[in-house]
Amino acid sequence: MELNELQHQRLQKLERLQAVGQEGFPSTSQRTHTIGAALADFDALADAAAPLTLAGRIIGARRVMGKLAFAHINDGTGELQIWLSRGDLGDLLFDRFADELDTFDIVEVHGTLRRTKRGEASIFVQDLRLLAKALNPPPEKWEGLRDVEERLRQRYLDLIVNEDRREVFRKRALAISSMRGYLDGRGFVEVETPVLQPIYGGAAARPFITHHNQLDQQLYLRIATELYLKRLIVGGFPGVYEIGKNFRNEGVDRSHNTEFTMMECYLAYADYNDMMQLTEAMFRHIALAVTGGPAVTYQGQVIDFAPAWQRIGLIESIAEQTGLNVLAHPDLDDLWSQITTANLHHRSKVERKATWAKQVDELFSTFVEPLLIQPTFVIDYPVELSPLAKRHPTRPGLTERFEAFVGGMELGNAFSELNDPLDQEQRFLEQGRAYTAGDDEAHQMDTDYINALMYAMPPTGGLGVGIDRLVMVLTDQPTIREVILFPHLRSREGH
């Protein structure tokens, strides 16, 4: 690796330390307390005047003022000033700190806790040791890495210099753990299903394709966990859930990433009304755990997760915003004719889609979805849009399906699950015809799933929640890339 001038200077400092017997990367630390623990019990530890050992990364500027020197260290649990004097440390260690150590180096300090004359909590250092030499310097502007693309490519640096970034991912972890705790408390069993699948299904999406060399099989990275989880309901589990990665070979924008985290849960002897109640209660539970209350601020809007959420019909919402009753125009050509007559394709750049179902979804996504800021259930979707949902008992052509919207984004999707194997087989065949007509996201035939349904699945409610988007709302982040630690990015030129 070719080093630049600043890296070369740091390497020379490391070599000088190693030449006098100082390890640049020792294997262990003698730390006795985290900084967070030391700060939490600061006054008692200071009164006891008992020496303790802390460790952390030097952040900010080091300040050397005659016989005194100061810096701050951070170990991920907290930040503390280190206070060094030539008299306490001796010339060798004091000069080593002043001459050979740098911002971003990780050090171990031994001493006692006291407050300075200005009242700042500090450790007065009696011994000092290097734990890891940073050969890369901090970014030019210490106040943080501002270039978004660079932050995402070097997430490790982003996390070092931007404390608020670390807080986003702490809250993400808390959201997932509180979701898991809620479902566990309701008696759901957490399970794991295959990531590599011989037939992709459970959603409308294009898959990533791979190959199993030994078995000479074409396999797909899963686009959803749904069909395997419902096999478990057939097998006798009363409620199951999985939190894991899905992969969809589709476009990337502010709310879509090709690799994303989903929670899917299924509850026997339930329907989509039960899943609405579960969604309301679970989202409120998570919001309380992460933010301390049911209301959060997302992109300038106060969003209240407290039940009960508003409910609107999909067909009615499209009609309200466009004047079109899409059920009255069940043919794609007819629907497109109505769209052009109403000038919707010019007014909001609605594009013609390959199928009637896709065209309906386009109308909803364009005219309704951006308006759904407060938590909203959009209910009763056309059969053509919902190949895995049970038909509505009183509304012909529709299914018992809802999608949950918050902040103008879909956060959840749920059904009264279709458990009639003969109807399910016909839905798959219709999806096959849609695929032939040009819908490359249409569902594939899964004969083993049909066979599972033929052993009888009880009435079942299912729910999928996009965890990344939920975290976006809970942490007020404008794009999905900000809540994924390592989002996939376009390759740089020449790399």
In the CATH hierarchy, what is the class of the largest domain?
Answer: Alpha Beta
**How far do the termini sit from each other?**
15 Å
With strands numbered from the N-terminus, the spatial order across the biggest sheet is 6-10-11-18-17-16-15-14
Task: Indicate the percent of residues in helices.
Answer: 25-40%
Question: Within the CATH hierarchy, at the fold level, what is the topology of the largest domain?
Answer: BirA Bifunctional Protein, domain 2
Counted by DSSP, the helix tally is 17
Low-confidence stretches: none
The assigned structural class equals alpha+beta
Give an account of the 3D structure.
This protein has 495 residues and is an alpha+beta fold. It has two domains: 5-138, OB fold (Dihydrolipoamide Acetyltransferase, E2P), CATH 2.40.50; 161-309 and 374-483, BirA Bifunctional Protein, domain 2 (2-Layer Sandwich), CATH 3.30.930. Helix content is 35%, strand content 25%. The protein has helices at residues 5-19, 35-40, 42-48, 86-89, 91-100, 148-153, 155-161, 163-185, 226-234, 272-291, 314-322, 332-341, 344-347, 356-367, 421-436, 447-453, 467-475; strands at residues 52-65, 68-74, 79-85, 106-115, 121-132, 189-190, 196-197, 209-212, 217-221, 239-247, 259-268, 295-298, 301-304, 310-313, 376-382, 398-406, 409-416, 460-466. The strands form four sheets. Strands 6-10-11-18-17-16-15-14 form an eight-stranded mixed sheet, with helices on both faces. It starts with a helix and ends in a 20-residue tail after the last helix.
